[in-house]
From TrEMBL:
Transmembrane segments: 33-52
PANTHER family linked: EXBD MEMBRANE COMPONENT OF PMF-DRIVEN MACROMOLECULE IMPORT SYSTEM (PTHR30558), TOL-PAL SYSTEM PROTEIN TOLR (PTHR30558:SF7)
Family: Belongs to the ExbD/TolR family.
The protein's name in its UniProt record: Cell division and transport-associated protein TolR
Single GO cellular component term: plasma membrane
Organismal lineage: Bacteria, Pseudomonadati, Pseudomonadota, Alphaproteobacteria, Sphingomonadales
Topological category with respect to the lipid bilayer: Single-pass membrane protein; Single-pass type II membrane protein
GO molecular function terms attached to this record: transmembrane transporter activity
The entry's keywords: Cell cycle, Cell division, Cell membrane, Membrane, Protein transport, Transmembrane, Transmembrane helix, Transport
Top-level taxon in the UniProt lineage: Bacteria
Places the protein is found: Cell membrane
Signal peptide: none
Amino acid sequence: MAMGLSGGGGRNRRGRGTRAPMADINVTPLVDVMLVLLIIFMVTAPLLKAAVPIELPDSRAKAMSEEAAQITLSIKRDGVIYFEEEALAPGELADRLAAVTAGPDGKKPLVTLRADKALDYGTVMGVMGELNHAGFTSISLVTGVSSRSGG
């Protein structure tokens, strides 16, 4: 409970117990709500960016922070590879990756790889091999959020 600043425990000089109304607003609940909303938007923003509909595999891993310079590669169930939102012809991935320039720090941008869960392991590894060959060393694998409990 808030008390006055007079140090007399709510009593003035004459001994009467009078209290002045508090004029301060408690902003702690507002800050708590804003931080929760910020976390929700930070987690959902990378999911809203993807425009290629893919059924992602589930994972209980923590979400990563989104970097400003990143490339999104998506692989649909039928094996078609998308560079951002543009479908690539077979064999075109290597040329598109070679055309990506390094940033001001000399590093290639982060690659976010989204692959349908029905794809075979070899298809995804083939794309990751192309990324490695083109000099991309930071690759994030996007998964869906799992609601299963551990066990």
